[in-house]
Amino acid sequence: MRDGALAMYQSLESFQADVNACGQYYNDPLPSRKLEAAYKIYLHASGGTKLKDIDGNQVQFGVAVVGRLAFDCDTGVWKPSDETFPGIDLIMQENLTTMGEDPDSQGSILSAKDWSLLANDAWVLGGIHAGTEFHFASPLRWQNLWSEKGGMITVTARETICITSCGYRIIRPNPKLEAVAICTDATKAKGASLLSLKNAVLKYADLETLQQFFSEIPEPAKH
Fold it and tell me: Does residue 7 form part of some domain?
């Protein structure tokens, strides 16, 4: 973690206490294996993302990638990410490597064996505490934030809400590249918790409030 700062949750017990305080939000009671997996992911993310150099040594990278998977539901196959179907594909996962429960998985893309909404939030929160840059593999278009079929916000919307509620600002410094969320308020970022993420998501959980949130996203990030 940057500047030698400590993770907010120093034990599984303190992490679980905040999970419990969130009540039914994380489908309480959560199986113990999923709780433990989420905590491990939080610890990895709060240490910052890392890649391996030419000698196989881990070096700080400081970038996490969020966005939908480049999986075509119509055909049931993975496809390379491109302008017509932007997202996280297998090539990107191989190049930037993944982060999960395993101690040596500290890459930029979340890939949890025991995935849950809690694991996803733990990954985002750990990255926020580390001051990680979040790069959006998918443009923040309305259809990527709201599921018409399910009538609910998407995981990408949850991630974007959590990130921007915790001292981050979305920019697009190069119109040919992806939008990026950078930390502009380190104090607010370090003070974020599972409870504050929950409150932020619930604030924009329905169609009308998410439309309000969408209107506040910088236009370049939507294209």
Answer: no
